[in-house]
Amino acid sequence: MQTRNKNFNVPNTLTILRIALIIPFVIYYEEDRVLKAAAILILSGLTDMLDGLIARKCHQGTELGEMLDPLSDKLTQGSIAICLAVKQPILIPFLMVFIVKESLMVAGGIFLISKKRKRPGGSMWYGKIATVLFYLSFGAIVLLKGVWGIENLTVSVTLLSITAAFMIYAFVRYAKIYFKIMRSDDPKYRIDIDEVMDKKRHG
């Protein structure tokens, strides 16, 4: 009898949906259909809050979910940041902060998994706050333009400065965890890639 794949659950479905929502957001925003883009952004933010909540409350957390959740956050945030930077080139420095932070975190996670056979640390409160600030800041910028026709550079720079500052703070905190995992011999950080793949092959 084939065992039910625990990866097919509500939290992981919401995470995949968040990745899929990137496409309509980019299309709507580039076509200046800002209200629809804002609606997509709000829906994306809701899935981000719900997937973690459901995973904790219903005990549906999985290793796949732990890897997909931050990946979907990075893809979503990167797409939004690029869209705004294309429309307002003066915001490119904030985009660079995001790119450098996320690139380093992705590279560090890949190194831990592939070379050190260790699992990266999960999302922490400061990472979640940085994500919430990101959605609030970019959501406010999009709504101001779409609803009231306001495109105020001072407001945009202020909101994004706060977001960038907290992203840097979160990055420093995550870096401390990263180096702790690198130096640790604790078995809880170990991940057997071959065993995981073997389980997948055999259902």
Question: Can you give a write-up of this model?
Answer:
Residues about 200-203 have low confidence and may be disordered. With about 200 residues, the chain is mainly alpha-helical. The chain has helices at about 10-20, 20-30, 35-55, 65-85, 90-115, 125-150, 155-185, 195-200. The N and C termini lie close together (about 10 Å).
Rg result: 18 Å
- The class by helix and strand makeup works out as mainly alpha
Distance between the termini: 10 Å
Count the DSSP helices.
8
Number of β-strand runs: 0
Largest sheet: none
List SSEs in N-to-C order. HHHHHHHH
- Principal-axes shape call: globular
Considering DSSP H and I runs of 4 or more, what fraction of the residues is helical? over 70%
